[in-house]
Fold this sequence. Notes:
151 residues; mainly alpha; disordered N terminus
Amino acid sequence: xxxxxxxxxxxxxxxxxxxxxxxxxxxxxxxxxxxxxxxxxxxxxxxxxxxxxxxxxxxxxxxxxxxxxxxxxxxxxxxxxxxxxxxxxxxxxxxxxxxxxxxxxxxxxxxxxxxxxxxxxxxxxxxxxxxxxxxxxxxxxxxxxxxxxxx
Length: 151
């Protein structure tokens, strides 16, 4: 802190340096969110025509379509959960950056809140990646490539 009451350029420079890693993390989470929202959009796009077919179907075909729609619904919920958790992670990292900058202007103990927020962010990010992993596993299991093709 500047002895005349202002914030020194060194304090602001240090805050910027401390913020760089969380800002890069925010960038990575942004890419993850883009991929997850695209994935959710594709799931929803696949479900729309199946719902129309389901309403017109009867018997075994209706049962098959209902099972496929349930699988897509589960995948959509997992993708939505992954998006929510990634967004929470990004929000917590943004708060960390704000606290780091606030500490450049006002001297108060921020190690514990910053550490807790960062841990919370990493837990949310891990949860997001777990949801994504499970969704990909479900998508892989439901592949229908080559079914019904006679050799």
